[in-house]
Description:
heterodimer, A: 5-stranded parallel sheet, 6 helices, B: mainly alpha, 1% strand, binds iron/sulfur cluster
Amino acid sequence: xxxxxxxxxxxxxxxxxxxxxxxxxxxxxxxxxxxxxxxxxxxxxxxxxxxxxxxxxxxxxxxxxxxxxxxxxxxxxxxxxxxxxxxxxxxxxxxxxxxxxxxxxxxxxxxxxxxxxxxxxxxxxxxxxxxxxxxxxxxxxxxxxxxxxxxxxxxxxxxxxxxxxx
Amino acid sequence: xxxxxxxxxxxxxxxxxxxxxxxxxxxxxxxxxxxxxxxxxxxxxxxxxxxxxxxxxxxxxxxxxxxxxxxxxxxxxxxxxxxxxxxxxxxxxxxxxxxxxxxxxxxxxxxxxxxxxxxxxxxxxxxxxxxxxxxxxxxxxxxxxxxxxxxxxxxxxxxxxxxxxxxxxxxxxxxxxxxxxxxxxxxxxxxxxxxxxxxxxxxxxxxxxxxxxxxxxxxxxxxxxxxxxxxxxxxxxxxxxxxxxxxxxxxxxxxxxxxxxxxxxxxxxxxxxxxxxxxxx
Lengths: 166, 281
Ligand code: SF4
């Protein structure tokens, strides 16, 4: 009962973090379009939070290069479990039109594990919403809540701890 | 026995009411923006989800501060339901507010730091006003106890209309609504990410959220005292006040703390003192 409730709450309340890894902005505009009254993803409880520490779903648009791969990695680590990652657009999937550039690493999955791939150049808002719904399916499988407030014994943030207490 | 029942009512009903109100808030906001909006019980989904997330903290201080903030909010609501002293209630909720700020100050993140300082300014802005409202209530009823407000034969609103306006300023600041939502706001993507709440995550953010619901109920309860003689009157007063809050939230831009301090103190203090003086005419 308790597990079912938690799983339901998780699926009903995916807070989204959108990271522009090096996109041409095409995919970003489509992603932000999901927030407008036309698509209104808040209907499904989704909120664009802009803060990895509050997010459940990481939306990544654009190619990964040698500079921003560290940022991407850090954002991923700062998100508390359970979390899912969605790569958006041809660039996020494989590097797209930029894949042959000297500074490009490739798709998002070269740096962090990706759960859902949303193709398109740019990906349409409908496809992005579809991708989030697919990701929620993954989240449902991932959700194995332990009794009494899941999440194990907790951890301190890996990077903050080293620099903290200043 | 009566105390136990009232305490229980405060403990259980307050978060339910606060959560539902947050849901209605989001629905009405969506409606004002011609969106459909999330279901009314969305805040409960959010809270359950947050509590079931991984416990990720920056330092142990943060955890303590989130708990103290919650405890203070819960305690002040319980005091309110037991018709205790307004002054005691005031000090208990002030302790909670300060702990929220301390938690945000204990982390190195600049967003959290700036958010904490703005929160402190907000606390400084509304606390004197709240105090003046309580003084007004004292002048009318002759006591700081909530029970004597309830025994008062006429609605306080008739004698303290301007102080009610002052209380709504405090309400807007406490609810973190525009134009006073600069320490943190309900919508992320402001210049400080989420200000004081930036570094709270998972279950600890859940604690802060729950405390926020308790505080909302507390302040709305204070508003309800102004028409305590009739239940429909109370409902009308609260409904109208909250709708006005939402309208203001959706039509105003976020202002700066300098503006808030200047505006709220001048207008608020003038209103409050006018009302206090006229009680003696
Ligand atoms: S997939 Fe296309 S639209 Fe999207 S970021 Fe790449 S080039 Fe731009």
